[in-house]
Amino acid sequence: MTTARSLGLWIDGANSLPAGTHNAITDVPGVTVGHRTLQGDGLATGVTAIVPHQGDLFRSKVRGAVEVINGFGKSAGLVQVAELGTIETPILLTNTFGVAACTEALIRRAIEKNPRIGRQTSTINAVVCECNDGQINDIQALAVTVEDAYAALDAAASGEVEQGAVGAGTGMTAFGFKAGIGTASRRMKIGKEGFTLGSLVLANFGRAGDLVLPDGRRPAPGEVSGPEKGSIIVVLATDLPLADRQLQRVARRAGAGIARLGAFWGNGSGDIALCFTTADPVPHDGPDFQTVRAVSNDHIDIAFRAAAEATQEAILNALCAAPAMTGRSGKKFPSLADWAREHNR
């Protein structure tokens, strides 16, 4: 698989944090990722699933937070995440018109495991995030189904993550190039303990001509586009113990990684970051009081750096792994990997 590192577009600096084994969000123990790709007959879309742990998420919720950098989006479940600070379903990524099908799939899966949901106990807060892949995909086809969401969930696995034009990223573009799904991770050490933070992005943002590579070069795909109308979803996972407010503070630093590449979060851009920790899960029927461990704010800078670095590299990986593709109108979206191979000679 082509990545920013394999093309020489990402070189660790003296102050960079080390990447995890797979340089992926799945380097966080227990986190898995799966894709369902739909392509052909005008379709270029799909679903990507991020599963925080392998138990029953409704019964054992992960603590999480959301940072809405720019809110031009149609996601589901974010209001409750912001209010309660927990995530109780896998996180599904898809296109704008696939949110309803993915939400239904998460609800049905949760009820299968917990028939009391909505009757003898609370309802379920399905978390689905989206970007508009309509430049390439026929989004009016409403192609994403409940079964496609199930397939992405069932495909979720640990280890290496397929990137680029796959799953929810199949029809996405960024900075005028073909883009999609990207991921990266960073290892952190605080005292004698080691932790991991991983970022997975659905990259569909940025004006053509605005991309800035880590070495300062500005690759242009041809014509410079008009106003930014894209979006990016960033999902951050970590095993570092973080308090509720700290989770949102870490999520906010994903914006630094996005901005380093030249984006300014335009009016028409939906830029959303979710962050969850697998430490100290919240039981559905828990005790009256729960003890939560949290890193000292005096040591949280390393998590901020990890979030910014991993998100920046994840976006570059989304761009590098995706092959060139032609949109519905005939517009060509070139591959950043092809540009790099030509200009790195």
Can you tell me about this structure?
Helix content is 22%, strand content 27%. Helix 2 links the parallel strand 5 and strand 6. The protein has a single domain (25-282, 293-323), classed as L-amino peptidase D-ALA esterase/amidase (4-Layer Sandwich), CATH 3.60.70.12. It is of the alpha+beta class. The strands form four sheets. The protein has a six-stranded mixed beta sheet. A four-stranded mixed beta sheet has the order 1-2-5-6. It contains seven helices and 14 strands.
Quick summary:
This is P1 family peptidase. InterPro entries: ArgJ-like_dom_sf, Peptidase_S58_DmpA. The protein is an alpha+beta fold and 345 residues long.
Question: Helix and strand layout, with pairings?
Answer:
Layout: E1 32-40, E2 43-51, E3 60-71, H1 78-84, E4 86-87, E5 91-95, H2 99-113, E6 127-131, H3 146-154, E7 173-174, E8 177-178, E9 181-190, E10 193-204, E11 231-238, H4 244-252, H5 254-260, E12 270-283, H6 301-321, E13 325-326, E14 332-333, H7 336-343
Parallel strand pairs: 5-6, 11-12
Antiparallel strand pairs: 1-2, 2-5, 3-4, 3-12, 7-8, 9-10, 10-11, 13-14
InterPro entries: ArgJ-like_dom_sf (IPR016117), Peptidase_S58_DmpA (IPR005321)
Protein name: P1 family peptidase
Family: Belongs to the peptidase S58 family.
